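Saturday, quiet lab. Running sequence design on the structure tokens for the scaffold JK sent over.
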């Protein structure tokens, strides 16, 4: 190396952001991780075969001392059978994944299972150590070798910076998903805005229609019908109030006078519904009852003040007054019915009602559409692909410092 070679700049690798996926894959392949996994699997397979032979040797092994008591032999045989069954079940379950990205997770699970096996076989191991120390030690050595092979493989993979590559791939995936989501939301926003504009145009058209209907001659006539109907109903209500007040003021004498007589139901009707009673009273029997009561007022034992007041009210309930009020009420009721019929048959009223109903429905749709649009806008603004893109670039530079990433 020349004296000035140390000052030469290291060559900067240049890639485009769109090629990061391929670059990561090449980076991964350059580490020959698949070969390392295959080599570890071959070593573990060899240890599994060795462990199985060691288990068979333990199963077939004879005691060095045949003179131990029968009971101890039986206890030993029980522990030997239990130990070999548990260990064989454990090693038969070992299946190392070929995908290097799964090694870390598998190693952690293996370690947990090994700890469980150790706890389950602790008593078996302690007993068998006294009888078959060498055979048991060979089994333990093989299993320990498997654990060490997995740990070594995991360590090699970690040294290769796989976590960084995995994080970069995940970040790239998130970036692309966010781009797609933003594009989708942008299209949604365009559609929602068009829909909102369409709804507002329809609302404006309905408002114009309603305004035109209000200006029409037909609506003017319709309003007159409504005003006349209201005027008639006000007049009927006023008559009803007057009659109710008049009969209320003589209710006590009337009730007392007609108590337990054939006229009691008629009087009750007048006191509760004077308009209805007057309408049904064709012969104006109430006038005859009142006139007769006027002659017999002295028999009702009324106080002087109430007696005078009752006489005054009776004077107002003349036959002419009752006829006039009855005829007037009938005419008003008939006119009101006729106006109600005209109002119900009014085309402009029906059209106006339909338009107002549609307008109300449109207003609700517009409010809902505006709410949904606001939510979509907020969601759209919260998405930041550029931030995620920058995080991916930073992760790539952690993997390889001498690299420059061009935006597409």
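Result came back. Writing it out in full:
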């Amino acid at each position: 190396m020349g004296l000035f070679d140390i000052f030469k700049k290291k060559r900067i690798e240049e890639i485009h952001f769109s090629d990061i996926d391929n670059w990561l894959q090449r980076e991964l392949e350059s580490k020959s991780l698949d070969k390392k996994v295959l080599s570890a699997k071959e070593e573990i397979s060899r240890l599994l075969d060795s462990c199985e032979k060691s288990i068979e040797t333990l199963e077939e092994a004879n005691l060095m001392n045949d003179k131990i008591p029968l009971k101890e032999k039986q206890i030993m045989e029980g522990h030997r059978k239990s130990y070999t069954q548990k260990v064989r079940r454990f090693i038969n379950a070992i299946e190392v994944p070929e995908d290097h990205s799964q090694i870390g997770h598998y190693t952690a699970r293996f370690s947990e299972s090994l700890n469980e096996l150790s706890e389950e076989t602790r008593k078996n191991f302690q007993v068998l150590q006294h009888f078959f120390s060498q055979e048991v030690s060979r089994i333990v050595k093989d299993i320990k070798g498997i654990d060490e092979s997995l740990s070594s493989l995991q360590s090699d993979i970690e040294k290769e910076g796989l976590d960084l590559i995995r994080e970069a791939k995940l970040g790239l995936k998130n970036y692309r998903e966010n781009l797609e989501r933003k594009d989708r939301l942008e299209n949604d926003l365009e559609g929602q805005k068009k829909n909102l504009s369409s709804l507002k145009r329809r609302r404006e058209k309905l408002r114009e229609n309603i305004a035109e209907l209000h200006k029409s001659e037909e609506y003017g006539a319709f309003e007159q019908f409504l005003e006349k109907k209201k005027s008639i109903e006000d007049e009927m209500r006023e008559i009803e109030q007057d009659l109710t007040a008049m009969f209320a003021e003589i209710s006590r004498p009337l009730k007392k006078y007609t108590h337990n007589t054939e006229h009691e139901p008629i009087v009750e009707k007048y006191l509760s519904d004077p308009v209805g009673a007057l309408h049904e009273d064709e012969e104006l029997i109430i006038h005859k009852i009142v006139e007769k009561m006027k002659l017999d007022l002295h028999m009702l034992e009324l106080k002087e003040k109430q007696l005078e007041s009752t006489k005054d009210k009776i004077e107002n309930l003349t036959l002419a007054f009752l006829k006039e009020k009855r005829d007037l009420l009938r005419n008003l009721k008939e006119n009101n019915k006729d106006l109600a019929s005209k109002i119900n048959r009014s085309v402009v009223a029906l059209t106006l009602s339909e338009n107002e109903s549609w307008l109300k429905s449109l207003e609700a749709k517009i409010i809902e559409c505006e709410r949904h649009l606001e939510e979509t806008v907020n969601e759209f603004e919260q998405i930041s692909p550029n931030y995620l893109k920058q995080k991916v670039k930073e992760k790539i530079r952690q993997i390889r410092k001498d690299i420059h990433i061009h935006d597409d």
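Notes for JK: The two ends are 38 Å apart (CA to CA). The first strand starts at residue 13 and ends at 16. Ask whether to fix the surface positions before the next round.
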